[in-house]
Amino acid sequence: MSASATTHVPDWRRTPPAEKVQRILVTAYGHTADSLPAGPCLAELRRSYPGAEIHLFVVEQVSDLWTACPYVDRVRTIHDFKWKGTRLQRVEQLVRLAGLTARIRGRYDMVVVLHARSWFFSCLAYLSGAQYRAGYHDRHPPRWLTHAAESYEGIISFRDENRKVMAALGIDVQDHHLQLWPTPSARAEADALTKTIPQGVPLIGLHPGSHWACQRWHNDRWASVADALMEHYGVQVVITGSADEQPLAEEIAARMRRQPIIATGATSLLGYAELVRRCSVLLCVNSAASQVGLAMRTPVVNLVGLEPLTWTGPESGEAMTVVRECSESSVSWCPLGIWGRLSECQIAEHVGLAGLNSIHPDHVLSAAAPWITAAEPSSRDHRTDLAPADGGLTTQFDTVRDAS
Q: What is the reported pTM?
């Protein structure tokens, strides 16, 4: 008898019964911007299976983000792949697959593969022995998944991508918004950084870093914008980023006339999220910072280049202004051909290469200005929709904003 004849494949529209699902594993591979869209799906899984134990598989770099998630019982971490884009990639994947299978075999009733459309996690779901397995088939053997998400053409958002996986399980994701849950220790970290700011002085976040140099903006332009904001609006600028972005922050600060707070490497990921929550507006390139801003309901001014905004753009009720001076392109602009294949590239000569060279500081200032007095950060509820103080911005740059 063939394997397909012996494998029970439920109707993809049928939700697995709660009495048969006691332990769930959700994989959300990738860094911050990749894993955050798992939040709405986890919330729906918790509502659909209130008595189940839910585990989340993420790379160790983002495990801190999920420690306080109320929908998850345990966060399990994996090391990111070291040899992506090289001839050793498949060997590394096979070795890792064997090790992970030994850890999870027979331990879960359901495995849900979010975001990562790769053979690796679909195969891991199959090898886990879980009765119910949801994800994307793509070119994988059909038996790997029992609930295959509807395929699509072109580019859709990470959140839509995940919603399709949940729909394959018959679960409708009703609340699409990203979420984060800063802990008391995270709030203490933010307190330590902001305690010297006089009461009533707005805090403006500036996040210049990215895993990709080509998606960064030039330091002298960041310095120009920061000085103009501090001098014209009387705000306090805080430069944020990871510890390895400390030199970047210091170089920007050295070019400024006013003194910013340098918070690079000074917080945990949740501490950073709490710091962003306290900002009147967050200025950043199209990196994970923009997604943290959306999750914390802080207005975001997002400097975007050639890369598709569709992946991580705002949804209804989310406050983001996009500054872009080029057309979106699906053609690789990377001279080395490694963008999207590796985890990062920090070649200094490539700064601004992906379309940010043409963005002028005046455009960024115009985009930031309406948000500075739109709302006090402390008054923002988790469901509050924000609108800028004026009705619109100039057409010199592309604007994406929900003001409903």
A: 0.85
Amino acid present at 59: V
Q: What is the mean pLDDT of each run of 10 residues along the chain (404 residues)?
A: 40 80 96 94 97 96 93 94 82 94 97 89 96 92 94 91 96 94 97 94 93 80 96 96 92 96 95 97 94 96 89 90 84 61 61 76 94 57 37 34 32
The SS3 call for residue 345 is strand
Contact 352/216 with Cβ under 8 angstroms? yes
Which stretches within 262-360 are classed as H helix?
A: 269-277, 288-295
**Structural domains in the chain plus CATH codes:** 3-168 (3.40.50.2000), 184-379 (3.40.50.2000)
Gyration radius of the chain over CA positions: 22
Burial 78-117 (b: 16+ CB within 10 A, else e): beebeeeeeeeeeeebeebbeebeeebeeebbbbbbbbbb
